[in-house]
Amino acid sequence: MDSLFPKPSGLNLTLPESVDALARRARRLTTPCGEGEVVWHVWGQARDGVPPLVLFHGGSGSWTHFVRNIEALVAAGRELWVPDLPGFGDSAVSPLGGDADALVAPLCEGLRQLLGPRPCELLGFSFGGMTAGLLLAAHPELASRLILVGAPAMGVVPQRQFELKAWRHLPTPEAQAEVHRYNLAALMLHDPAQIEGLALQVHAANVVRDRLPRRRLAHTDILARSLPQVDCPVWAIYGAHDALYKSWITQLASAFEASARDFRGLTLIPDAGHWVQFERPEAFHAAVLAALA
């Protein structure tokens, strides 16, 4: 298996742990996606009476959005099922379109093929949270609870709160890395000291495999409009400094209460931005395990 994280020449981007080794410890399964497949990574062992925990990563990402969380959640006794969502990572693009709504059918087919009639517990980060909401609105039987992490499209932000810079046209890895640093600071991370090293390496490896460049649903209220069709309990976890919302984050709790049938609460994690599970993993794990208890 080739390294997931080829090092750009001229840059000192070293990993503090072997992400490739973590990937090799997973069981790799596939389900149909048009002419291609959705790739699922599975860690941990099934336990009687404990549903599998399915994690959906964010936009321009892959399973590595959870690179700092997998071992801790497995150690807590959970079996994790983490797909590369269609159009990202190792998974094929959905033939149905290029946004979250096009991912519902192949993900539903995959969950039914892999898990049968068993409902999972579903956690979605950012774009993956919006996708999870759309999935359960259409197929509420697939999950017994939903945890939304940094999810967009709740209809409380009057205008986009950040702008990202383009990087694909830049001629050198060094120039591209500077833009990746800027974009991580603008959207993903509150603490600039965390941008170097693992965060930058993961981000740079993921964005080159993003094949859904024209996503627009995240800038609508589609998640808020979908949650009334979701039957299961819903929890929300956000970094207190999430760049998607900034000062509007104070309105999130009331937005969830107004839209989700069974909303169980919003946890705001201090000193964290949008990529909260990477930036504050211990606090994130505590919030997730409390929701799963």
Automatic annotation (TrEMBL):
Keyword terms of this UniProt record: Hydrolase
Domain of life: Bacteria
Pfam families attached to this UniProt entry: Abhydrolase_6
InterPro entries in alphabetical order: AB_hydrolase_1, AB_hydrolase_fold, AB_hydrolase_sf, Epox_hydrolase-like
Residue ranges annotated for the AB hydrolase-1 domain, each copy included: 53-286
GO molecular function, one term: hydrolase activity
The protein's name: Alpha/beta hydrolase
